[in-house]
Amino acid sequence: MDLNLLRTFLSVYETGSLTRSARDLYVTQPSVSHSLAHLRREFSDELFVRRGRGMVPTLLADELYPVVKDSVGSIDNVVLGMKSFDPASSTHRFRLCLSDLGELAFLPQILKTISRDAPEVEIEVVPMDIRLLPDWLTRGSVDAAIASWPLAGEYGGTLLKTEEYVCVLRADYPMAGPELTLDEFLRARHVIVDPVTGHQLAEQAMQALGIVRRSTVVVQHFAVIPELISECNLFAIAPESMARRWLDKWPVRLAALPFDVGAVEVKLYLRANGRESSALAWFRTAVSEALKY
């Protein structure tokens, strides 16, 4: 049987969507439908039935899935292990999962390093959703990710840097003393970044201490924070290295948080495909070298 048909089966099973499968496999939706029709004839079973807006596996599909997944994974590992990777001539595309903060802080240096050694290699940035990231890495939907939140499962990760969180506030905000107090922190209104970006350590610390902020707005991107602070006189929590970049461009200042958060570890995670391919090994090394501090 055509290996691509089995990949289609795995994708439809894991995503429950023909549209998402087409996107993940880089094919059209009619192509996915055609492959599914072929599989149905091959196995004399519907395999997936539409329920609402999704595709639900049949009993036979449930039985087939672990066998097909192991078989395709084993084949991929052998093939990837045999292939050599020449960065100077490769046109490979790597899918790298980043938050918007990661795009601002890491992507320029990564591109600079990779374009020097591998001018034809491409990088596709996938927006971060920390809830879905383990599944993406397991399925190979992304090749790598840079995240500051530990992932569930066997994802050791390569440590890139440690980071501290700080409070960012308007430069003229009237503080009672040189240090921000917990009372001042609680009285202020806050702009909060959605935790799906992977920045959850401060939230976890506050939850443990019973600290509840006055939320004015929840945003999806760190990039909007300095303007919201400047124009709306809000507070925000942000990684110190990024917040310091705002000091020269925006009327903001930094203050130590009035509670202990601890340092966060920023790590590079690779897709879980068993044996590491030469291409992925090169990419891991290139990213690590690009982000040395």
TrEMBL record:
Keyword Transcription regulation: yes
Protein keywords: DNA-binding, Transcription, Transcription regulation
UniProt xrefs under CDD domains: PBP2_DntR_NahR_LinR_like
Keyword presence, DNA-binding: yes
InterPro entries in the record: LysR-type_TF (IPR050389), LysR_HTH_N (IPR000847), LysR_subst-bd (IPR005119), WH-like_DNA-bd_sf (IPR036388), WH_DNA-bd_sf (IPR036390)
Signal peptide positions on this chain: none
SUPFAM superfamilies (alphabetical): Periplasmic binding protein-like II, Winged helix' DNA-binding domain
Domain of life: Bacteria
Domain HTH lysR-type: 1-58
Single Gene Ontology MF annotation: DNA-binding transcription factor activity
Protein family according to the UniProt entry: Belongs to the LysR transcriptional regulatory family.
Name of the protein in its database record: LysR family transcriptional regulator
